[in-house]
Amino acid sequence: MQNLTILDIREVYIGNHVMIGPNTLITTVGHPLSPKGRREYHALAKPVRIGNDVWIGGNVTILPGVTIGNNVVVAAGAVINKDVPDNTLVGGVPARIIRVIEDDV
To answer: Which of 3, 24, 25, 80 makes the best surface tag, with the fewest CB within 10 Å?
Structure first.
């Protein structure tokens, strides 16, 4: 079974020509680090933005507040915890830039 899970208490923007692999999680919700904040059920919410011409591999996690630029490839299994610039290939946990890719359109 293939799933895309979007946990959204804030906006999730997805551009044009975006491919999303199976078992991907996009979440706008986080929780405080302090035990008191978690016991009081405080949630942190930040929107997620995904640009145009993005390919997101399978089993990727995109965390709250992240912006993924245009013409980005996200390798399978990556955890995106910070903004990703245009025209890049990113991968890893946490994700980092692996290389720059050409924008040929």
So the answer is: 3
Query: Tell me, what DSSP letter sits at residue 9?
Result: S
In the predicted model, what is the mean pLDDT of the chain? Answer: 95
Q: Which has the minimum average pLDDT: 6-10, 13-17, 41-45, 88-92?
A: 41-45
Structure pTM?
0.92
Distance in angstroms (rounded) separating the CA atoms of residues 55 and 78: 12
Single out the catalytic residue among 7, 17, 19, 31: 31
Q: Is the peptide bond before 64 cis (omega within 30 degrees of 0)?
A: no
1 has pLDDT over 70: no
- Is residue 31 part of the annotated active site? The answer reads yes
The dihedral region occupied by 59, where left means phi > 0, alpha psi between -120 and 50, and beta the remainder, is left
Instruction: Tell me which residue of 70, 100, 66, 75 sits closest to 86, measured CA to CA.
Output: 70
Query: How far is residue 72 CA from its own chain's centroid?
Result: 11
Q: Give the 3-state secondary structure of residue 65.
A: coil
